[in-house]
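Why do we care about 3D structure at all? Because function follows from shape, and shape follows, mostly, from sequence. That is the central idea of this module. The next example makes it concrete: a single protein chain, its amino acid sequence, and then its structure expressed as C-alpha cells.
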Amino acid sequence: MTERTSRAAPRAAVDEVAGICSDLIRIDTTNEGEGHGRPERPAAEHVAALLDEVGVTPTIVESAPGRASVLARVAGADPSRPAFLVHGHLDVVPAEPADWAVHPFSGEVRDGHVWGRGAVDMKGTVAMTLAVVRQRMREGRRTGGDLVLAFLADEESTGEFGSRHVVRRHREFLTGCTEAISESGGFSVTAGDRRIYPIATGERGTAWMKLTVRGVAGHGSKPAKDNAVAELSHAVSRLASHEWPVRLTPAVLALLDGLARALGTNIDHDRLDAEVRRLGAVGRLFEGTIRNSANPTLLAAGYKVNVVPGVATAQIDGRFLPGTGEEFLATVDRLLGPKVTREFINFEESSDADPGGPTFAALAGALRAEDPEAHPVPYVMSGGTDAKSFARLGIRGFGFAPLLLTPDLDYFGMFHGVDERVPVEGLRFGTRVLDRFLDTR
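And the structure:
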C-alpha cells in the first residue's frame, strides 16, 4: 500500500483529520426526529470557522432556530467545467452513554480509533472533507470546476430542516452542479485476501408510512365489536411476515457481477439468500438491495388496560428498489386490508448514478492509487441519504466516504450502533483518497 505515487501526501490534512473528527463528535448534535433534539448550530459554527480560517467564505443558513447548515462555494480554475458538490451531515442519532465502553460524545482516541457517535455516520467524513479542503486552500490548489460544500442539518430525520431546505431556498449555491459525493461508500470490506471497495451508485426509495385503524371504543371486559388494536395488529403482522420477491435491478446486477469478478467466484442469482450467508461481509453489500422491505417500527394505542381504544396507529419503514414503487405500494395496501388507512410520513423516489461513467472511474482510480489491492465495485444502498434531495435538481450522487478498515471492524454495525468508532489510519487513508479524487474535478 502506498501513501502517494504522483506527489507528496497532503501531510497537514492527514495530520489534522483525527483531531477535527474528535472535535466534531464532542459537539452533541443528537437528532431525535420530528424537530426534536440538540440543534446543529454549534457544529455549523465550528465548521464555518475552520473554513473561514483558510479563506473559504462560509454561509450559515437556518431553516428553524438552531437548525443550521453550512454552505460554501470555492471557485475553480476552469469556469467552463461543471461544479461539483461534496455534502455531509452534522446531526447524529441518539446514543445512551451507559451502553458504551467510551462516552459517545467524548471524541476520545483509544486503541488507534476515534470513538463516539458520528465517527462513521458521518462526522468522520465531514472531518476528511474539511481537512482536504483546508490543505488545498493553503496550497492554492483548486478543482477544475467550482467546488460546492454543504454540511447539513437533519439528515438523520427527513432532511426537512437541512437538504430539503437548501434545495428549496438556497439552490443558487448549487448552480451548475451535476454530480456529488457523500456518505456510505468507498469503505473496504475484506474477503479472504481481497479488499472490496463498494462505491454507491444508487439508493432504494423511501416510504415511511403511518397506519391508522379506527374502531369502537368500549369497556375492556365486554366483547369488542370493532377492536382497533386487534385489527391493526393483524395487519402489521401480515406486512411484517410477507416474503418480498427478489428483484434484480441493473445496478444490483452490476454489483453482483463486480463482486464475482473481484472474488473469482460465481454468485448464483437464483439462490441469493444462501449466497449472502456464504459470502459473509461481502454478502451484506447486496443483502438489503435484492428486494423491497417494510418493517414495523412504532405502535401506539390506548391509555388504560380496561379500555378498548377507538384508534390504533403504527409506523412502517418501507424501502423500495428503483422501478418498483407502484408494485411496492400495491402490495402494502393488499396486505394491510381495507380497514387500515395509510399516509406518508416521508416519501422519496430512489436515486441512481452512472457506474460506467468518468466519475465512477475517477473514484475507483483514487482508491486504487492509495491501495493497489483495491477492488472497487458499484453498490446500491439499502437506506437513504441527502442525495435524494439533490437528485430533485438533477444532481447525480455517489456514495463515497473512503475508509480503509481492519477486517475485524463491523462497519455496518457502526451505523447507529453502540461503540461507534473509526480507525485513525482509516481516516488518514480516506483523506489521501479524497484529495486524489478532487484533483480530477
